[in-house]
Amino acid sequence: MYKILIVEDDAIIANSIKKCLENWGYDVELIEDFNGIIDQFVRFSPQLVLMDIALPLFNGYHWCTEIRKLSKVPIIFISSNSDNMNIVMAMNMGGDDFIAKPFDLNVLVAKVQAILRRAYSFQGEADLLEYRGAILNLSDASLIFQEQKVELTKNDFRILKILMENKGKVVSRDQMMTRLWDDNCFVDDNTLTVNIARLRKKLDEAGLTEFITTKKGSGYLVED
Q: Residues where 4-aspartylphosphate occurs (predicted)?
């Protein structure tokens, strides 16, 4: 089931779109706190965003730019500001399509279906993992914290992915080593310790202190 996030401050329009898309089998959420759009985007991890231009606090162009720092998820602008300048601006800011208000819900559904087919027919669905404000993008193996990208090695990414997928649970050293080095070659136990230490240093320098907790005799975790 594809997840769609609607960023629209007109409750009547937002709810009518939500009801229509849910009837087509989509999982739909509405933005209610227009100061916390990115937080809800990360938590919900949608496969498509419907974005109005005229919004409280900041406009849709701003939020499109913020989302593009984290994800390549398709964004369709929906707006009554449908002059050529706004359409061009929407595309230049990272939008994938533009639907002018008022619109036919059948046309909206058709565009949503077409974009989802193009975006996900030949690739896995993008996903985000979040912990303490750090966002791990599984589609491009990047880590973003406070609008800055933390450079990760292949093992850095794998370690963070394992721990963030198991947030609140201890991952044993044996489990970690099996996931990191599954090619049956012998790997010294100290190799994992070195990798964890290097990753911790990198996270500390980015401001993510005590991001990974050691449970002596058990393994590692990130707290829930």
A: 52
